[in-house]
Amino acid sequence: MPHMHLDTARITWLHTPTLNVRSATRRIGVLLFDGFWLLGPGTVVEMFQTANELSGSRAGEEQPYEVQFLSMDGGSVASSSSARIWTDRIDARFAGGFDVLFIAGGYGAHVAARDERVLGWLRSVQSRTRAIETIGEGRLVLEAAGPTDSDGPQVNRYLSSVTGESALNASNDRNDCARSALMFIKRDLGAELARSVADRVMPGMAATWVPLPVEGGTLSVAEKIRAAARWMEANCDRPVSVADAAQVAAMSERNFLRRFKHEMQVTPSDYLLQVRLRIACNFLTETELPVDKIARRSGTGNGDRLAKIFRKRMALSPTEYRARSRVASEA
User: SUPFAM superfamilies recorded for this chain (predicted)?
Assistant: First the structure.
């Protein structure tokens, strides 16, 4: 598959569906529209199709994933690079929702975000879809659709770069989509198969994205804890659970929490917060990014949450920190 450019902003929208849409074969949808960036959807499909290939399903058995490109009218859809992708028309077949629905990015998303047919369909399918992931400007489409009610799913945003920087971050763009797909593959099929998929599609990245438990006896407890801490730092822009960190250290959650506190003098959650706060401080000092974008890029959610963390930990707002740090650097 050709490796082209992808914008990088992503939104992860996870919630418990009102209907059970999961079955032996999990439905993965990729919503396209004219002018979409091809790299992101291409990478996503490659990851899930590789998982199908490596899963070892025998002839006649259902594969883990059914992956479909979708569009409102179906047929051929032109990407921003003029390459065309054949899509299924969105109709009653997809009313039951998806295990994961990806929304493509690209300049065409600005038009799709004003298309009431697209927005209406997204509103109707949200409650029956377990997870919605947006790629680049695809976030505009999801934000325009909005939740269907006040109890709608929680929205977490992750940005690895901003518009205008994307030409310098093509590899990071592809990495972001690959990590997103791997998160679900690991959830469904386990860490070992997810690691095999990463090795096949993105050689050299598996150890960082899907670390397997360290082999017993080869590392000391301190080394295992520090390996887990490094993994938390590398993945701090994404949701990080104690269970995953404990798996990296090859420990039970209870033992990991106790050992981590002893070795690092802080709990895993406090350590992760410190890492994210340090990243946010660097962005505030070194860039002109708005506070909300810094919050997303540092894994702290949104500007309001970052401001609460700053006030609690540093007794000042992010804006005040930025101003003071720059005055100090100029002195």
Answer: Class I glutamine amidotransferase-like, Homeodomain-like
What Å distances lie between residue 221 and 28, 211, 252, CA to CA?
40, 17, 13
**Which residue, 52, 55, 66, 53, is CA-closest to 22?**
66
pTM of this prediction exceeds 0.70: no
Q: Which two tokens stand for residue 69?
A: 């490109």
Which secondary structure element, helix H or strand E, spans residue 112, and what is its range?
helix 108-112
DSSP per-residue codes, 36-53: B-SHHHHHHHHHHHHHHH
Distances (CA, A) of 171 to 6, 43, 102, 159, 160: 9, 11, 19, 14, 11
Question: 107: closest CA among 84, 131, 147, 138?
Answer: 138
Question: Sign of torsion, CA 166 170 171 173?
Answer: positive
| Contact assessment for residue 32 and residue 69, using Cβ atoms and an 8 Å cutoff | yes
Extended beta strands in the chain, E state = 10-14, 26-31, 65-71, 75-78, 84-89, 100-103, 131-135, 154-158
Neighbours of 262 (CB within 10 A): 11
pLDDT digits (tens, 9 = 90+) for 230-279: 888 877 877 788 888 888 888 888 999 999 998 888 899 998 998 888 88
7, two tokens: 């914008």
> Could you read off the pLDDT of 40-55 as tens digits, one per residue?
899 999 999 999 999 8
What pLDDT sits at residue 289? 86
Question: What local confidence, expressed as pLDDT, does residue 165 receive?
Answer: 44
Give 85's strand partners.
77
pLDDT one-digit tens code per residue, 174-193: 777 888 888 888 877 877 88
Strand partners, 102: 30, 133
What is the arithmetic mean of pLDDT over 74-95? 90
Residues 161-180 as b/e (b if ≥16 CB within 10 A, e otherwise) read: bbeeebeebeeebbbbbbbb
Q: How many residues are present in the chain?
A: 331
